[in-house]
Amino acid sequence: MRILAFDTATPATAVALADVPVGERHPPATTTTALSGLGDPIELRDDPPPGARPNHTRRLLELIEQALEHAGSGWEQVERLAVGVGPGTFTGLRIGIATAAALARSLQLPLLGVSTLAALALPARAADPDRDILAVLDARRGEAFVAAWRAGAAPVRDRPAVDPSVVVPAELERVAAMLGPGAMAVGDGAVKFAADLRRRGVLVPTEDSGLHRVSALAHCQLAAGLAPGEADAVQPLYLRLPDAEVARRR
């Protein structure tokens, strides 16, 4: 099944196009491939430099069209759409999910919402099946979005041992302590809070590791195992109030 997926929950804009067997339970062979030709997995990204504003509005549709062009195919060969539902930034999630819903309605395609944390954990699980995996995204405000899977558990099919939640550093350390030494943490939040995690014996790959990037190819893999629904049923997972609402209440 040909699936087009994208994620705007983080500062990056990630788009992927892949042929994935429905019900496939193994992660893709690569999460960084950008190849041409029918059937080849394609991922295109826009990763703004640290401190720069995301380019979701400007780049998302552009990257989608480029992915289809690289594949040498059109929308008529896309069978499912998948979008990251977060947790993540309020504006980024709104852009991604609104775009996905509009495309699904106009093209009459099934739409699936995919956990951004599960998509982050999937390549890490493929890299090391025998470790607990802690997916950590920078939530700003000194907080992190987290979810965790025990060794052997697959984000494709298994519930997380730690459900998606927002935590402060002290709580993140408690999650790491619960998992115990030898767990692996991935994501931009794992890089930001690396010192806190390493104090608890958690392995954090080097900052330049591709495991810290959310891969839209993982979204394709996760979406293949989900039942599609109505476009309007896909909702963002915010976990907390947006910055503007916090400021208004203050």
Describe the structure.
This protein is an alpha/beta fold and 250 residues long. The protein has two domains: 2-116 and 214-249, ATPase, nucleotide binding domain (Nucleotidyltransferase, domain 5); 120-211, ATPase, nucleotide binding domain (Nucleotidyltransferase, domain 5). 34% of the residues lie in helices and 20% in strands. It contains eight helices and nine strands. It has helices at 56-71, 90-107, 116-127, 169-179, 188-192, 194-199, 216-224, 243-249; strands at residues 2-7, 13-19, 42-46, 80-84, 111-114, 133-140, 143-149, 162-167, 184-186. It has a five-stranded mixed sheet, with helices on both faces. It has a four-stranded mixed sheet with strand order 8-7-6-9. Helix 1 (56-71) crosses helix 2. The longest helix has 18 residues, at 90-107. Mean pLDDT is 89; it is low at 25-38.
List the SSEs and their pairings.
Blueprint: E1 2-7, E2 13-19, E3 42-46, H1 56-71, E4 80-84, H2 90-107, E5 111-114, H3 116-127, E6 133-140, E7 143-149, E8 162-167, H4 169-179, E9 184-186, H5 188-192, H6 194-199, H7 216-224, H8 243-249
Parallel strand pairs: 1-4, 4-5, 6-9
Antiparallel strand pairs: 1-2, 2-3, 6-7, 7-8
Helix pairs in contact: 1-2, 3-7
